[in-house]
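Progress report, Aim 2. The chain analyzed during this reporting quarter is listed below.
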Amino acid sequence: MSGRRDFLSMPAPENYVAGLGRGATGFTTRSDLGPAREGPSEEQMKEMLAKRAAQLGQPAPSAYGAVEKKEEDEEEDRFQDPDNEVGLFSNGMNYDKDDDEADRIYQDVDEKMDKRRRARRLCSSTLYLRRTDTDPTPMSREAREQKERDEYEKNNPKIQLQFADLKRALGSVSEDQWAALPEVGDMTGRAKRERENRMANARSYAVPDSVLQAAASSGQLETSISSSDGEGTMTNFASIGAAQKSALQVRLDSAANSSGTRTNASGTSTSVDAKGYMTELDKKQARGEELPVEDVNRARMLLESAVKTNVHNGPSYVALARLEEVAGKVHTAKKIIEKGCDMCPKSIVVWEEAIRLNREQLPNAKIIAANGIKTNPRAIKLWMAAIDLEQTPAARKKVTRQAIDRNPQSVELWKILINDTEDIESVKLLFAKATDTVKLSEELWISYARVSGPEEAQQILNAARKAIPTSWLIWVHACRLQEELGKNSTCDKIMERAVKALIKENAMPSREDWITQAEICEEEGDVVTAGAIIKATIGWKLDENDERKDTWLEDAKNCTAHGRYATARAILAYTVSMFPYSTRVWLASADLEKHHGTAEALQQILERAVTACPKQESLWLMYAREMWQAGNPEGAREVLARSFAEVQNNENLYVRAVDLEVDAGEYDKARQFLHIARNSSPTDRIYFKSAVLERQLGSFETALDLCNEGLQTFPGSWKIHAVKGQIYEALGKLKEAEEAYSLGTRAAPKAPVLYTLLSRIQEKTGLVVKARSTLDRGRQQNPKEPLLLVEAVRLERRQSNTNAAAKIMAAALQECPTSGLLWAEKIMALESRTQRKPRALEAIKKVEQDPLLFAVVARIFWAERRLDKAATWFTKALLLDPDFGDAWVWYWKFLDMHGTEEKKGEVLGRIAAAEPKHGEVWQAVNKDPKNFRKSVEEILRIAAAKAE
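Predicted C-alpha cells for the chain:
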C-alpha cells in the first residue's frame, strides 16, 4: 500500500479558497460567526503569485512593469474609466499563467512601438534642424508629455498651489495678530434663517366678528334703524352663523365647479352632460336665479367644445342655446339652434327647442315645426308642438287629423283630438274609431266606457276584455261600473271571474298590486269594489303553511297607515273569516273600529269576538270597557255577568267589575265583588285593591285589617306592605309606618319602592344617616337599580350636599349608563343651564328611546324660548309612550303658557283616550286619596301645577 495520502485527506494549500477560480469567495453559514469573509488581500495574492513563479523558475509577473505611480499621477484615479478592464484584475484574483504571458507579449509590443516612434522623431528632428538653427536635441515622448503637463498646470493651477505663498506667509503671523482676527461670519443660508425667524416671531389674529358680519350683509339694502345708542359692542351671532354658512356654500360651489366641469388635456372631449346642464338651467331659471358671469363663460367654453367635438350631437346645441338664452342673448341662441337643426335633422329635442325659442313669432315657429315634421314625420312630440301653435279649435283639429293620418297608432294624438271635440256623439264616434284602430289601449277602452251609457259601457268593456284578455284594469272598471249601478252583489262574482281569466292568461298581478288598486278604488269612492278586490286576491300565492295571518295583519296595518280604512277593514274581515278563533285578529279588528269606525260597529265586532272566543278574558274586558265608555253601564254589567259565567274565578274580571262600580259610585257593590273575589279566588292583587278602596273611602281601620289579613296569606307582597305603611303615615303614626316599611324590605328584599319609602320616612324623622344606610342596603339587594340610585342622589341634594350627590351620580351612570331617569336627574338638577344641552345630547346618544329624556330635551328648548323645538320634542315623547303621564303633564304646562285653546282641547282628548298610568309626578297625584274619583283632566291640571 502506497504511503501517499488520499487526495481528500490532504491538507489544503496555503491561502486556499474553494471556488476562487470561478469567482467565488469564502463564506460561513453559522450566524454566530458573523458575516461572510472577504477573499485574499492584494499582498497575499502577490505573495502567492511570486511563490508560484519561483517554483516554476520564472520571474514574477509584473503586468507592464507595474512601476510606482508618480506624485503627479496621484489624482488620475479620479478620472479612471469605470468600464476599463484594468480594474477587473487589480487584486489578482483571476490572474494565471496565460494572463502573465499575455502581459509580457503586450509589453514587448509596446516597447517595439516606442522604439519606432523614437526613430521617427529623430529623423524629423534632423530635418527640422537643417531648416532652422534651433536646439538639435530631440524631444522624447515622455519629455513632450511632461512639458504639456507642466504647461497645463501652469495655466490651470490647483487651489492649494495658488495659496501656497500665503500659507508660507502665515508662519510670520504673531500671537497678537492671531488674537486680533475677527470672528468668522456664517453667510450660508442667512436669508433662509432670517425668513424663518421672522415667521416664528410673526403673530396671527382671528378674523373679527365685524368682518364676518360685513361679509354676510354685503350687497343687501338695510331698511331698519338700529335702536342701539352706539355705546358698547354687540355681536350678532345669527349674522356670524349666516356668514360662515355663506362662506361654506361658496367653497362648496367652487369645489363642485372645479370637479364637475373637467376636460381632458388634449381638448378633444368634454365631460359636460348636456341634458343634465339643460335641466339645471331650467331649475335656476324657474327660481329666478342669475348665473354669475364667470360661470356663464366657463359653461360656454365647455359647451362650445362639446359642439365642436361632435357636431351631430343634438343635446349639445340645445344646452348651448339654453345657456345663451339665460345669459340674455336670445338672437345668438336662435342662431345656434338653427345650426343644430341643420346639423342634426333627426334630433327631436333640437326641433322642439327651435320651436320654443321662436314661439313669440308664430309664423317662424310654424315653419320650423313644418320642416321638423317633414324630416321626422313620425315624431309625436313635434306634431303635438305643432298642434299647440294653432290658435283656433278648427286649426288644431286639422293638424291633429294630419298627425293621426301619419301616426294612427298614437294614443296621445287620439286623446288630443277627442279632448278638442265638444259634441258627445262625435266623441263617441271618435272613441269607436280610436279603439278600432288602437285595440290594445286600455285607456281608450276605459274612457270610451265612461262616456257611454250603462248598457253600452258593458258591451264596450266586454269587447275590450276580448281585445285585451291580459288587462286586469278592464275587469276592475267593470266591477266599479256594477257598483255605480247599485249591483253590489255582482262585484264579488266579477272579481272571481277576473282572477280565473287572468290566471288562465298567465297575467295575474301580485298581491301588492291588487292592494294598491283597492286603495285607489277606495280613494275614488268605490268601497265595494275595493272590498271585492281584497276578498278575491288577498290570498294569492299564499299557502296554508305560510304565515298568512301575520302577513294579512301587516297588510291591514299598512293600509291603515295610508288612511285607507275600508281596505284595511276588508283585509281584517277576510282574516277573521279564515282565523275565527284568533284573539289577536279580533283585537286588531276592534282596534280599527275603535279609532276609525263607529261605536256600533265596534260593539258588533266585540260581540262576535266573545261569541267566537268565550274563554278569552281580554275580549270580555275590552267589551265591558267599551260599553261603559259608550255610556251604557247596564250593558257593561251585563257583559261582566256573562264573562263570570264563561270564565270563572278570574282576577282581572273581578278587578274590572270593581272599577266599573267605583266609577259609578256603587261602593257597596264594589265591596261585594271584592268580598266574593277574596273568598273564591284570593290573590295579593285582590287584597291590595280591597285595602286601597277602603283607604280611599276613609276606612283606615278596615284597610289595616285587610292588609294584615292579606299579609298572612301573601307575606311577600310588597304592594300590601307599601299600602300599610302609607296608611300609618296618613294617620301620623310615623313609627308604625317605619316598622311596616322595614318589615316589607325584609319580606320582599327585591322591591326598591319599599327601600325608597323607608328612607324617606327616616329622613322625615331626622335619621339621615339611617336613611343612607337603608338606601345602601337596598342597592346591595338590587344592584343597578336606577330608582334607588336616583333616591340616593336626591337625599344628598335635600341635605345641600351637592358634591356628594355629584359623586353618587357619577358612580350611578357608570353602573346604569342607559337609564333615562338618571340622565334626567343629572341634566335638570346637577348641571348648569349652559351645560344642559350638551349633556342631553350625550344622553340621547346612549339612551336613544326614552320618553322622560325627550321631555327633558323639550324643557331645555322651552327654557331657551325655542317653542317650536320644544313642542316637537314633547310630541316625540307622547308618540313614543302615550302611557307615560309625566310627558302629558309637562306638555300641558307648556301649552298652558304658549298653546292655543284648540291645541289644549286636542291634548285633553288624546290623554283621555290614552289613560296614562306611569310617571313619577303623574302617579303621585293620581294615587293620592285626596284625588279619588277625579277625572283625567283634573288630575292633569293638578299634576301640572305641582310639576317643578
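The radius of gyration is 53 Å. The chain has 49 helices and no strands. These observations will guide the mutagenesis work planned for the next reporting period.
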